[in-house]
Each structure stands twice: as C-alpha cells, then as structure tokens.
Design goal:
Distance between the termini: 39 Å
Shape: globular
Strand content: 15-25%
Number of helices: 14
Bound molecules: zinc ion
Length: 478
C-alpha cells in the first residue's frame, strides 16, 4: 500500500476549517493530524511514500456531481460525453464521484435499463460512479422492480412531469411510484415542469414563426415549473414519500419547496451553475456571427435559463445560503453545435436539451465564495458533503475523515482558471457554455481513492480507475 501525507493545507469541511495534515494509506484516509504531528513517528514525512505540500491551499473532499447524463440518448442523438470522456473531464475539475442516470423507457424492463447502464460505464470511468434509476415508463412491472433496486445500491429514482410521449409520468403513475418509495425508503427525484402545458405553448410559438432558441425559454414558463413543483410536493405529502426536485431554476419553485420544508416535509431541491450565472436574456437570447440567433442553442436545457430581469439568479444564490436549496449538481448533458444542437435550426423544439458543466462545477461554485455569495464551508457542503448524505454515501464520500475514501482535492485560492475551449476544456464538445468565465482559484491536485489523477496540469488517471458505488438510503431525511 502506498502512504501519502498531505501537509500544511487548510482542511475544509461543511462545518469549519482547520490547519491539518492528512494521511492516506492506499485507498483510504487513515488520519487527520495536527500539522507536523510527531504522534505516529518522529518524522512522519520521512516514513511515508509520498508527501504533497499543500501549504496555503485548501484540502477538500472530492466533488460529487449527483446529476449527470453521460451518453444519454435524447432527441435522435446522444449526449456527446461518454463515461470515459465525461468522467475524465470531471476529474480535471475536482469531481471524484458522479451519480449518473440509468434509463428505463415505456415497454422496457427496469432491470434491463440498469444492466445496460452498467455495461456502458464499467471499465470506462476515471472516477467512482453511482446510478439513479430513471423510470420513464411507470407500469406495474416497473413498480414491482423498484424495491429490488435498493439491494443493487440504487436508492433513488427519477420521474418526469415533462416530455409527454418520452419520459412523462402522469399524476396517477407518480402517486403509485411514490407509494412504493414511502414503503421502501427510496428517494423520489422529480423533473418538475408541466410538460403538456409547455408542449402547447411551444407549438403555438413555432406556428407564429418564433422558432429561435430564445423561445425555448418562453415556452417553458416559470408557472409550469412552479405548478409542477407544487403538485409533486402535494403528492409526496399525501404518500409520505421524500421528494428531491432536480434542476430548480424558478424562484417561485424555490418558494414552494421552502414552504413545504417549513412545515417539516422531507422535500429537497438542487440547482445547477447555469441557473446561478446564466440567463434567458444574455445566453438563450444571444446571437453570433457564426450562428445568428441560433447561438442561444448552446444554452438550451430544461428547466430553462430564467430571466435576469425577474431576479431568479439572485434568488437561487440566496436559497443556497438559507438551505432552501441543498445542493448544486450540473445536469451535465453535453451536445455539440455541429450535427447535434443544429438539429433544431428552424424549430427550437428539436434542439437537444442539455449543457456541459461537469468539468467546471467546483470552480464555478468556488467563484461564489470569492464574490461573497456563499462561505468556503458552504461550498464544500453544496458540492460534496450534502450530495454524499442525500444519496447515501456519507462516511465513504463527502468528508475528510479517517476511514473515508481518499477522494481529495487540493485547491489553490491564489491560482487562476480561465474557462474556454482553447484553455481548460476536456469535455467532448465543440463549444463551452462557460466560454470566457474567469475563476479566482485553481484545482491543483486531484486524488481519487488514493490515486493522484490530476496534478500540476497533468492527467495521471486511467479509464477503469473508477468503480461502481453501491449507495445506501438517504442520510439527509429529517
Ligand atoms: Zn430533468
Ligand atoms: Zn437531468
């Protein structure tokens, strides 16, 4: 076993920061020591195999991105990052675990969808990975399969109130699935947008000649998100199922979550960097020499980017501070402009939905520390500790403590990161949704289960380093 001592750094947790040395033995953290401790030998630095000097830097638990879609088939194409390219990009950005979504559709068996996702990921990942189960066809067979997921280490499943004819579940289906969740401890994840309403609005816009990407954001009105969020909360209340709402972007949806939480309901919400930084006006409404008004296609995702004039972005930051929202994931679902996004030239409904961010989440959220939106501790909590607790991995992941996997990022607050396709860009896509973003910090070293996978601008990992993580039940319920 290789022993490594990380010396001189500031170890940051969700609850505080402390100067400490971290001792790694093989794949695990075995001790967090007072700086220069002599307890385990007269000179520990002389007896370990490797010493990493983290003086002046933050030592944090590796990022956990609990919402990714590697190689997801969508809209006649597939997300452009494979498990290999996407997890490598994640590692570059300080994320050491992803939770991706296995997919079952109407007419398919849940077990087959899950087995297929295991095949796609096995042996290809640079970092550890788990799965949530998408249930795109909630029928008797799927309902019967849900309890068996827990033994497979899959303790959460996602349904969609949007995308009629693709993934859509109606209220009766949602009710039945939530009843199973309440009985078993599975966590229900919800894409909360009123899909049938959105589809009518989108059709009317296109008929009126309003076909540019901007109108994707108009069709997917905040009222459709608020309404679906409220309905999901009430169905969860009725059944007693815990509820986790994915990619929250409307401030009105946050208010629904906050109201339910104030009443003591087990209701949670995540947002994503795009809903904190980007907007309907600036990105979906963008135009360029190359693409004209179709430039906005780069930022077509669902839920959509919201109006800055309406103040959604500021409200998302506030909700992260007050714990009305608990986590930040990416909903990483990248598509190239060439050959993929351009399927929707002339009709925004045909633009594959998704933004690629898995590489930049830790940096983008750190910039929120720099600008005073969140504290350093909250940064760690939102990006690692809460994802671990929410999805049943805490202790193994999400913390720097004895016994935990040695998933560690050494982050330099005096470093700098310029995001752009010709700069830091390892995702498999021909543009960056984050082009031109400047970060006042830098991911220096990334250790995944004890192995240094990124250091000093070098990638040292390997496809197949990452293993499947069997998750337990949520550790976040009240
Ligand atoms: Zn979704
Ligand atoms: Zn998603």
């Amino acid at each position: 076993m290789t022993t490594t001592l990380i010396t001189g750094g500031t170890v940051v947790s969700a609850t505080g920061r402390v100067l400490a040395d971290v001792l790694v033995d093989g794949e695990r953290i075995v001790a967090v020591l007072a700086p220069g401790s002599q307890l385990l030998g007269s000179d520990l630095t002389a007896s370990v195999d490797a010493v990493i000097d983290a003086t002046g830097k933050y030592v944090i638990p590796g990022g956990i991105d609990a919402h990714t879609h590697m190689q997801l088939p969508f809209g006649g194409t597939s997300a452009s990052d494979t498990f290999e390219t996407g997890t490598r990009a994640a590692a570059w950005g300080g994320t050491t675990t992803i939770v991706d979504f296995a997919v079952q559709r109407t007419g398919e068996r849940v077990q087959d969808g899950l087995a297929h996702w295991h095949e796609l990921a096995a042996g290809n990942c640079a970092i550890d990975y788990g799965f949530h189960q998408i249930v795109g066809g909630v029928d008797a067979d799927a309902l019967a399969a849900l309890p068996g997921l827990i033994d497979e280490g899959i303790t959460s499943f996602k349904m969609f109130m949007a995308y009629p004819g693709v993934f859509y579940a109606d209220d009766a289906q949602i009710l039945r699935a939530m009843q199973v969740a309440a009985d078993t401890g599975l966590l229900t994840m919800m894409h909360a947008e009123n899909g049938p309403v959105i589809d009518v609005l989108a059709e009317q816009l296109v008929e009126a000649g309003k076909t540019d990407p901007y109108f994707h954001g108009i069709a997917r009105a905040w009222q459709a998100e608020e309404e679906a969020t409220h309905r999901a909360i009430m169905l969860a209340n009725l059944t007693g199922a815990p509820l986790y709402v994915v990619h929250v972007s409307a401030k009105q949806a946050v208010e629904q979550l906050a109201t339910a939480r104030d009443k003591g309901q087990n209701v949670f919400g995540e947002t994503c960097p795009q809903y904190l930084y980007l907007s309907l006006e600036e990105q979906l409404g963008a135009s360029s020499e190359q693409w004209g008004a179709f430039e906005g296609a780069k930022w077509v995702c669902s839920t959509p980017l919201r109006s800055r004039a309406e103040g959604h972005q500021d409200h998302m930051w506030q909700a992260l501070r007050t714990n009305d929202l608990q986590m930040v994931s990416t909903d990483h679902c990248p598509f190239c402009m060439k050959g993929q996004k351009e399927l929707g030239l002339g009709d925004f409904r045909a633009i594959p939905n998704g933004i690629g961010s898995v590489e930049h989440r830790m940096d983008l959220m750190y910039q929120g520390v720099v600008t005073g939106e969140i504290t350093l501790e909250r940064w760690v909590e939102l990006t690692s500790t809460t994802p671990a607790r929410m999805f049943g991995m805490y202790g193994q992941k999400g913390v720097i403590a004895p016994g935990a996997d040695a998933d560690i990022v050494i982050y330099d607050p005096n470093g700098h990161t310029s995001i752009g396709v010709d700069k830091t860009h390892h995702m498999n896509m021909d543009h960056s949704a984050w082009e031109g973003f400047e970060i006042d910090g830098h991911v220096d070293t990334v250790i995944a289960r004890g192995k240094v996978v990124v250091d000093a601008g070098q990638y040292l990992g390997r496809a197949g380093d990452g293993r499947f993580v069997k998750r337990g039940l949520s550790q976040y319920l009240i």
